[in-house]
Amino acid sequence: MNKITLPLILLVTGSFIFSFFEGPEDENHQSKFNKSYAIYAPNQPDIISFAGEIMPLSQNDIKERFDRELLVNTYWQSQTLLFIKKANKYFPIIEPILKAQGIPDDFKYLALAESGLSNVVSPSGASGFWQIMKATAKENGLRIDAEVDERYHLEKATLTACKYLNEAYVKFGSWTLAAASYNMGMRGLEKQLKKQEVENYYDLLLNSETARYIFRISAIKEILTNPKTYGFHLRKKDLYTSAPLEYVLLDTAVSNFTQYANNLNINYKILKEYNPWLRKADLKNKDKIAYEITVPQEGYYVAENTTQFIDNSAQEKKMDTLKIELTKTSLLKNVAKENEISLEELILQNREVLDLKVKKGQKLTIIKESN
User: Fold this and answer.
1) What is the number of alpha carbons within 13 Å of residue 160 lying toward its C-beta?
2) Number of neighbouring beta carbons within 10 Å of residue 336
3) Are 144 and 134 in contact (CB under 8 A)?
4) Which of 136, 329, 359, 371 is the most exposed place for a label (fewest CB within 10 A)?
5) Which of 85, 66, 119, 91 is nearest to 274 (CA)?
6) What are phi and psi of 363, to 5 degrees?
7) What gap in Å lies between CA 107 and CA 109, rounded to an integer?
8) Where are the domains of the chain?
9) How far is CA 143 from CA 235, 278, 279, 281, in A?
């Protein structure tokens, strides 16, 4: 190496280093960051199953696909925290319906994956917790018109989802395939099974959404079943809960749901929160259909909140402003100590004092809390 090359390399290397660390403060900051911040890959369970059907994690591609969803849902903490909180509120409504209809309990996680347990609408028009399409809803007896959309009625929508899943299970002979068909449709799944000459979900090459579907549901199930394993620590009071409910028969027209809610000792907002399937502010009900309105038990909510104000009078500090004239030359810190005020406050209140020593006869202002 010649004499010119070596100094040039040292110069470039030095410039590179200082582009990262401009000084001791940056180096110290980076050191602290490296010591205190860490991200860990969660351990993968040995066995993962969906609806009693085991996921073949021994295959590398399957293991990687599940790992992706486990990582996404472990480190998308805000979303997963909401999943856990909401599950405590809504799973107790969904679980007994699944059980009564012969659907494995794991399908409650399908509803969670579909909508986050929110009454959302997809770009294709699928709506509600179970993301049911309008045509599917009507085929299964759900009422949808300008006034009512029962896809937003959690109990009725869950029953509709159960009916679909039971039909899909009979058709495909697998709960995993039944779940996949819920995402892409029975006809689409059947076409791919025949085209690719396979009989198992894990052997199929599918569109990206359906390809992730079972892995995402299974990852959510794993985390919600073992939240502390994945770093989620929630107290009982952190979880969302539903009000104790009562049911009111409605078989007439309602000209004004605001007044109707007031008569039930709640307000319009609460009425719509517990009955999101009511889509308008009135109900003509020309067909005289008997609906069941869900309302919180009396006393759980008040019909009208009152604005409350914080009383700060007891917390307000009373301050005294004192004018003093020094009788002797003294250090400013001694003046502060004698008057029970910090040196910093004294300087701020007397900005003209620039010297740490003040002279006899000098006048100062002192503002401090009253005794």
Assistant:
1) 26
2) 18
3) yes
4) 371
5) 119
6) -100, 135
7) 5
8) 49-238, 246-296, 319-369
9) 39, 11, 12, 17
DSSP 314-332: TTPPPEEEEEEE-SS-EEH
Confidence (pTM):
0.77
Of 236, 174, 168, the residue nearest 202 (C-alpha): 174
Specify the pairing of strand 319-325 against strand 363-369. Answer: antiparallel
Tell me how many helices (H) and strands (E) the chain has: 14, 8
- In terms of Cα–Cα distance, which of 86, 88, 67, 90 is closest to 78? 86
Residue listed under structure tokens 């067909």: 287
What type of residue is 303?
A
User: Would you give the DSSP letter of residue 315?
Assistant: T
40: Cβ–Cβ under 8 A, 6 or more apart, which residues?
none
From CA 250, how far away is CA 256, in angstroms rounded? 13
CB-based contact 332:347 (threshold 8 Å): yes
Secondary structure element (H or E) that encloses residue 294, with its range:
strand 291-296
Do you know the residue count of the chain? 371
CATH no., domain 49-238: 1.10.530.10
Quote the CA–CA distance of 179 and 176 in Å, as a whole number.
5
Question: Which residue pairs from 184-188 have beta carbons closer than 8 angstroms and sit at least 24 positions apart in sequence?
Answer: 184/209, 184/210
Return the DSSP state at 278: B
Find the angle CA(138)-CA(142)-CA(143) to the nearest 5 degrees: 90
Which tens digit of pLDDT belongs to each residue from 231-279? 999 999 999 999 999 999 999 999 999 999 999 989 999 999 999 999 9
Instruction: Identify whether the C-beta of residue 243 lies closer than 8 Å to the C-beta of residue 296.
Output: yes
**Which tokens hold the place of 18?**
């200082």
Kindly compute the dihedral angle of the four CA atoms of residues 128, 134, 138, 143, in this order, to the nearest 10 degrees. 50
Instruction: Give 124's pLDDT tier (boundaries 50, 70, 90).
Output: very high
CATH number of 319-369: 3.10.350.10
Of the chain, the end-to-end C-alpha distance in Å amounts to 79
Distance CA(363)–CA(83), nearest Å, equals 65
Task: Estimate to the nearest angstrom the gap between the alpha carbon of 162 and the chain centroid.
Answer: 26
